[in-house]
Amino acid sequence: MRQAVDSHARIDQALGILIATHRMTPAAGFEVLREVSQRTNIKLHTVAETVIGWALGQSLPESVGQELEAAVQRRSRERDSPDVGTG
User: Fold this and answer.
1) Which residues contact 69 (CB under 8 A, 6 or more apart)?
2) Secondary structure (3-state) at 82
3) Which long-range contacts (CB under 8 A, 24 or more apart) does 46-54 make?
């Protein structure tokens, strides 16, 4: 149980970092973490730990950095594009 609580706390911290650095919603931040996890085949809590480390000055592994940037860009495009079917 304690491990689950710790894992959840790390994910929340990583979400906060993404929200602050990329000005995204919590839902978009979670989707970014989830996408990076799926595309790199790294567990979500491990991706979160990596993002926290990055915020503290550690370098990101290249694969995580590339996927993180790509996922953030996808979320930015979705946020900035007009809704289909409106007008």
Assistant:
1) none
2) coil
3) 47/14, 48/7, 48/10, 48/11, 48/13, 48/14, 48/15, 49/10, 49/14, 51/14, 51/17, 51/18, 52/10, 52/13, 52/14, 52/17, 54/17
Q: What is the pLDDT along the chain (87 residues), one digit of tens a residue?
A: 777 777 889 999 999 999 999 999 999 999 999 999 999 999 999 999 999 999 999 999 999 999 999 999 998 887 766 655 554
User: Considering the entire predicted model, what is its pTM?
Assistant: 0.83
Quote the CA–CA distance of 44 and 8 in Å, as a whole number: 10
Only one residue has tokens 């480390």, namely 53
How many other CB atoms sit within 10 Å of the CB of residue 54?
18
| C-beta separation of 14 from 48 below 8 A | yes
